[in-house]
Design goal:
The complex is a heterodimer. Chain A is 65% helix and 5% strand. Chain A is mainly α. Classes of the chains: A mainly alpha, B alpha/beta.
Amino acid sequence: MATTEAADPRFAKGDRPEPSFRIEMLWTDARYRSLFLQIIAFILLMLAVGWLVNNTIQNLGRLGKDFNFGFLFTEANYDINQRLISYDSQSPNWQAALVGILNTLLVAAMGCIACTVIGVIAGVLRLSKNWVVSKLMLVYIEAVRNVPVLLQILLWYAVFIEALPKPSAFRAKADAEPEATLWFDMIAATNRGFYLPRPVFEQGMTLVGLTVLASIVLLFVFNWARKNYQNAYGAEMPGAMIALAMLFAPVAGLAIVSLLFPVALIEGGLAQIPANLGAAIGAQEFALLAKAAGAVLVGALIGLVLWRAPISSMRVLILFLPGVAVYYLLGEPMTWIYPELKGFNFMAGDDAAIYARNSLMALWLALSVYTGAFVAEIVRGGIVAIPKGQTEAAAALGLRANRIMSLVILPQALRVIIPPQISQYLNLTKNSSLAIAVGYMDATGTLGGITLNQTGREMECILLLMAFYLAISLTISAVINWFNERVKLKER
Amino acid sequence: MKTSILIGTVAAGALAAGLAGAGTLDDVKAKGFVQCGVTTGLAGFAFTDDAGDWHGFDVALCRAVAGAVFGDANAVKFTPTTGKTRFTALASGEIDVLARNTTWTLSRDVDLGFDFLAVNYYDGQGFMVPTSLGVSSAKELDGATVCIQTGTTTELNLADFFRVNGMSYEPLPIETNSEAQQNYLAGACDVYTTDASGLAATKATFENPDDHMVLPEIISKEPLGPLVREGDEKWGDVVKWTYFALLTAEEYGVTAANVDEMIANPPNPDVARMLGVEGNMGEMLGLPADFGAHAIKAGGNYGEIFEAYLTPLGISRGLNKLYTEGGLQYAPPFR
């Protein structure tokens, strides 16, 4: 056809008269049709939106209601049990909403972490060669996936409030031992929630923290050095060098910290070291000798142990050894506040034990276990997607099983796992709005619940709530998409 | 072509939406039943029997309204609502009248856009504790965990009470009365607070009611009553005067049993007008002339209803006696 047209003088360029635009060309001519249809669709959409808005305004007007957000700045008048920022019943409604939003974010963040851990473990075990383990995981996944999450939340909550002892059961009676005791003398598990010991940082803890930070930097340096050694010499770094690095780590950690940060910042923590050393070793005259001998002995021991130790345990040592050493040198500058029963309840607050309410625990566990089942299937799918040949080839090269997993399988499986994982995190975050079932005061409970109810501003509250969930969902998507861009197969 | 049809459809839809809700009384008459909002379940006030039929103090008012409008106490459908959903249900027109232990407050009357019609139960907020707690006054509750229904005035009173008395507490927010009961009995909270009538009703359903006590403090005024949407005066009048008919009936000794007798032989002109023997009261309300008689037949007069549902729970009339007996219940004259 094309050749015919080209040959035909009638179609020659320039000779052909421009066809005049006729109205039916809008739907007969392919050039205009798609644009025309889109414009129509757009107009229809706008009409629908306009009708909705108009209908809302009319109906609100008939109910004698206006549309304004002034209620956000009036007193909320109600109390909220779990608040991450300061709030009382005299605070404005926006602050109540913020308390709820932070509670939503807290349970969502905790849930995303826990569901990933549960999901990865369950997903890998589902592929285990051990029949019992893999079937157990199958039962977990299928049972949990197919029961509505609301029921699971209520079940966890009911178990907590019915099975755990009341706070009063921890009180010693005149003639008898208390019915319930703290777990490990540290944790009070009551039917109102879990009271966990709160760490108190005393003078010198800053120094420990900085040392740990320095150790993390050191770990990167160590990894970089090993890689360079491997590239330069084609062999693993000799154990002796690694052991040397080990010995060097605490000293280097301390040195880096002391050089980088003035003593004022570390609250005189360094000044305590000689005193503590002296106290630990004993008489002053032996101190110098003992210190030297101790250092050599410890160094030799560590070197001996590390000579053939696996690399992963060395990383752990690099990470923790300096921090632990500094912690003890400074005379353990951290204490714990344990749960203490007073009046009706265990004490909670800034100077008492950490209080994790049952509503939070039930919601967190239920969401994590539920979403974890979906994550497990995604992880399993991701691993199965990598051809078996890859494993066999890696094994033929002499790699051990764990290195096959971490170096060959997982980096490829992640590319399959991450995209569907996004929607699981989104699901978990949105499902957290079921919180009100167990009285957890999330954004739906405060802004979309009590505030809505007490002020009667349904429209405004629901719109704000929708905007919040939309924003949080888009943020999660954006973050994980960014991560996905980094790990996905780079196509060139 | 298509576009114009669509625009036309949309416009027609908008018009139809605008026309709906001309007046609730006409709507109710057209659909043939009253849609009444009640609690999800509170002993004495609104509960279902084995057959799934609703009974209770608030339910009886709905049935009386159905009797007044249709002459049939069963021409009523019930929508269970929680403290949170009740106002939305009423504002959206899902229910015609809300009879659900709802406290009459200024903000609800004015800002939420509702009309409270009468007070069918004068109540106040109280606290219930297990006797084993060893507490005898609400002032001793510093640091306690308190079960509370969300979206209620009790939630606000509670915050005020503890703040004014300089005490701290841990609120345990709960959606319905039955959940509150479960949490309270499991000891997840030390105290349950709601209207004193609700406490008595809840306590009566416990396995061992004697293990629990209601503390002497009443920390608020809770006038409970039926309400309708604002700007719906005609329908509001129907509910209001149905309720007054029940009160007037008690005042003059008209009961479900003797109402026919009373019609035949009214003891005084007020009763005669209320029962439709004289005057045109029903016509003024847009109801049948004998609306009052049917309202009383539905479940008896105010005293009978109270006796049937609340007295068995150990709730005394108290403030809810007739004014003639020193209470606050008082009906304006039928004239």
